């Protein structure tokens, strides 16, 4: 390795005390160790720093508050790195999941038909109906039960309710019976039409 220039040597010398206390990140540690391999004077200085550090440690029976704080800081940095790694690892997975949800939602909403609406959680209405203003809840319940219908939306601003039949009539004759049953109650129903 070529001889270090003055600025690189100063940078390595500044990092050496942290190397002794084992507080460098892996990149800086490798940088210092490469420099130590090729420079005898840096190795001598490192030996002095290690001896000094060892002597100071021997003299203190109880860890100093600085060392305790440093240990706490190291632990905090390690925990933060782990959290950061987990966040960086999960971020693409979460983005992919969100994208898939959007694609699924768009697919369901853009597909016409009753099955897509049911999958998306929307109720599919079979009939539009308006009721008289004086129709009671009991009368409405009785009428809706007689045709196996339930209100899935409404009233709109115009007073229109949307009904779903369960099951939906299979043939035209069954549809006509449902419509006739509702139309035969003008005291309750003022308008009825298939969706």
Would you mind describing this structure in some detail?
With 195 residues, the chain is an alpha+beta fold. Among the domains are: 6-59, no CATH class; 127-194, Alpha-Beta Plaits (2-Layer Sandwich). The protein contains seven helices and four strands, in the order H-H-H-H-H-E-H-E-E-H-E. It has helices at residues 6-20, 26-38, 40-59, 65-110, 114-119, 137-146, 172-183; strands at residues 127-131, 149-153, 161-165, 189-194. A four-stranded antiparallel β-sheet has the order 2-3-1-4, with helices on one face. A hairpin with a 7-residue loop joins strand 2 and strand 3. Helix 1 packs across helix 2. The N and C termini lie far apart (83 Å).
Could you state the order of secondary-structure elements as H and E? HHHHHEHEEHE
In DSSP terms (H or I, runs of 4 or more residues), the helix count works out at 7
| CATH topology heading of the domain at 127-194 | Alpha-Beta Plaits
Q: CATH class of the domain at 127-194, anyone?
A: Alpha Beta
Q: Tell me the overall shape.
A: rod-shaped
What value does the average pLDDT take? 79
Strand arrangement in the largest pleated sheet: 2-3-1-4
Beta-strand percentage range: 5-15%
Any guess at the CATH architecture of the domain at 127-194? 2-Layer Sandwich
> Radius of gyration, Cα only, in angstroms?
39 Å
Class inferred from helices and paired strands: alpha+beta
Give a short account of the largest sheet. 4 strands, antiparallel
Give the uncertain stretches in residue-range form: none
- Note the gap between the termini: 83 Å
Total number of beta strands: 4
Helical percentage? 55-70%
